[in-house]
Amino acid sequence: MRTLIKARWVIAFEQGRHCVIDHGQLVYEGEHIIYVGTRYDGHVDQIIEAPDSVLAPGFIDTHVHSGHRALHKLLADGGRPALFGQPYMDVTIARQGTQIRGYPNYLDQEQAAKDPGIALHATFTAAELLRNGVTTFVELGGHVLVQEALWAQCEELGIRGYLGPGYDSGRWQSDDKGQLERIPYPDQGEQLFQDALAFIRRAQAHESDLIHGILVPREIENCSLELLRQTVRAADELNLPMATHAGYNVIEFMETVREHGLTPIELLNHVGMLRPTLNIGHANLISNNPKMNYSGGDDLGLMGQKKVSISHCPVNIVRRARTLDNWKAYRQAGVNITIGSDTYPRDMFMNMRTASYHGKVMSHDLTAASAAEVFEAATVAAARSLGREDLGRLAANARADMILVRIGRSDVLRYGPIWDPIRSMVECGIGDDVDTVICNGRISMRDGVIPKVDLPALRRQVQDFAEDIWPSLQDWDQLKRSAQDMCPISRCTHL
User: Fold this and answer.
1) 68, exposed or middle or buried, with CB in 10 Å at 0-12, 13-18, 19+?
2) Which residues contact 421 (CB under 8 A, 6 or more apart)?
3) Is the pLDDT of residue 69 over 60?
4) Are the beta carbons of 71 and 120 closer than 8 angstroms?
5) pLDDT of 76 above 70
6) What mean pLDDT is predicted for residues 66-86?
7) What pLDDT was estimated at residue 432?
8) DSSP letter assigned to residue 82
9) Is the dihedral of CA 345, 348, 354, 358 positive or negative?
10) Is 24 helix (H, G, I), strand (E, B) or coil?
11) What is the pLDDT of residue 72?
12) Which residues are within 8 A (CB) of 381 and not within 5 positions of it... i.e. 6 or more apart?
């Protein structure tokens, strides 16, 4: 079927950059775009009129954690000063022996197979991404059962997922005093890697472009050098992108320097991982960051030299009093900056806006992190990190991934007069402004409605699930605190 979309503004991709077409038209057939311009004279089977909307490429969220959704949303604001602001209930450092519903890493095989929370998290994640205009996402190393659940939702709802079970050679563990220690499990790490490869090979053999594999050694400090080298060999053999967490935590940075005499970025280079299709989660706490007070090395220069991609998660990290130290310096060094939501919310408008504002402040330059740059980070730059030249852009032969955003609707004053629709979306937009999502030629959302998803019912399910878990938090918190102790309900104080 050949479909023509007429929109008030169309964000086309020409000569290597996005550009705005007033009263533009786009035609797609099957899974691909065949025309972008001002007037299409050929035959079409249907027409979509969008006189108050901007037609833009679908967003690409490069850093998603599905398993953090129902339990963590708005309950993880409090950080532990002793853990350098890490969230107080980060399940990667839960008390030893803990069993947590909805988190397969903390359930035995039989429990995990029956736990409804895993599928609930996956449905919530996929639906929230679509509702906010995301057509492609990267899941950062969840359990294989999480990946299986997301796979099902990608096919069911019509969203593209880069999926790959995470693996490592050990993990952080907390004792009853809240002290951290690293627990190695080299044999288990090899099995986790083989499980990930088996899953990824299935994804590669899948006929639909909605399912892709990605190699995710979860955390640089918890992976052996051999496991990282195996990752590189598999990436070369199978032509796969990679993602990991590095430069995201003071503990991670110092532990890597202590153990290897190298910064995490230098270690990635040492094993051959630094390349354009490696997306490093965060990469903000690097040797060049003044907060690290580290006099050796030039991580930023090294990343730029290798044209590495990073996943900047501005909303998530600013909650922990961190941000990208200097957006302009990263860009000038040659680093490919992409944007991820990480935990919550999945609103890419909010993330672009936060990236822009903090980028200007931290760069001490009002021209830094422009609307065009952060929009690029959420679209074509993200596609570049995956080795895709057919995503993140509206151009002939690109995948039919696009969104209609109602920035010109008469009942919303938030946008005001519109001169530059990209700037208007970045400065004034919210995810709820997305009206229509088309992914791989399939209408995945129309008029804010996702077929097969009852959003009010899903909200109720997630609320009920979370309320059922919250009373038991003290059973697995390192310091045996209740939810109220860890994150008191907000109240105003009279001064």
Assistant:
1) buried
2) 9, 11, 20, 54, 407
3) no
4) no
5) no
6) 59
7) 97
8) G
9) positive
10) strand
11) 56
12) 309, 336, 337, 338, 392
Phi and psi (nearest 5°) for 150? -70, -40
**Residues 308, 473: Cα–Cα separation, whole Å:** 39
Residue 280: partners with Cβ closer than 8 Å, 6 or more residues away: 243, 244, 245, 246, 247, 265, 268, 303, 308, 309, 310, 311
Residue 412, CA distances (Å) to 55, 422, 428, 430, 432 in order: 18, 17, 11, 12, 12
With bands split at pLDDT 50, 70 and 90, how would you rate the model's confidence at 183? confident
Burial readout 204-241 (b: 16 or more C-beta within 10 A, e: otherwise): eeeeebbbbbbbbbbbbbbbbeebbebbbebbeeeebb
Contact 18, 375 (CB under 8 A): yes
Task: Report the C-alpha gap between 303 and 126 in whole angstroms.
Answer: 31
- Element spanning 23, H or E: strand 17-29
**Residues present in the chain in total:** 495
Instruction: Kindly report which listed range (96-100, 445-449, 451-455) carries the lowest average pLDDT score.
Output: 96-100
Identify the bridge partners of residue 56 per DSSP, sorted by sequence position.
403
Task: Tell me, yes or no, if the pTM score tops 0.90.
Answer: yes
Torsion of CA 232, 233, 238, 243, to 10 degrees: -20
Picking from 252, 228, 249, 232, the residue whose alpha carbon sits closest to that of residue 241 is 232
**Contact in structure between 20 and 11 (CB atoms under 8 Å):** yes
Q: What is the pLDDT of residues 102-140, one digit of tens each?
A: 666 666 677 667 778 888 989 999 999 999 999 999 999
Compute φ and ψ for 228, nearest 5 degrees.
-65, -40
Q: How far apart are the first and last CA of the chain?
A: 65
User: Above 50 in pLDDT, residue 425?
Assistant: yes
Query: Which tokens sit at 13?
Result: 């991709």
Q: What is the CA radius of gyration of the chain?
A: 22
The single-letter DSSP state of residue 45 is: S
Q: pLDDT tens across 309-367, in order? A: 999 999 988 888 889 999 999 999 999 999 999 988 899 999 999 999 999 999 999 99
Domains and CATH numbers, the chain: 2-58+394-445 (2.30.40.10), 59-385 (3.20.20.140)
Angle at 352 between CA 264 and CA 158, to 5 degrees: 90
Q: What secondary structure does DSSP assign to 314-338, as a single string?
A: HHHHHTTT---S-HHHHHHHT-EEE
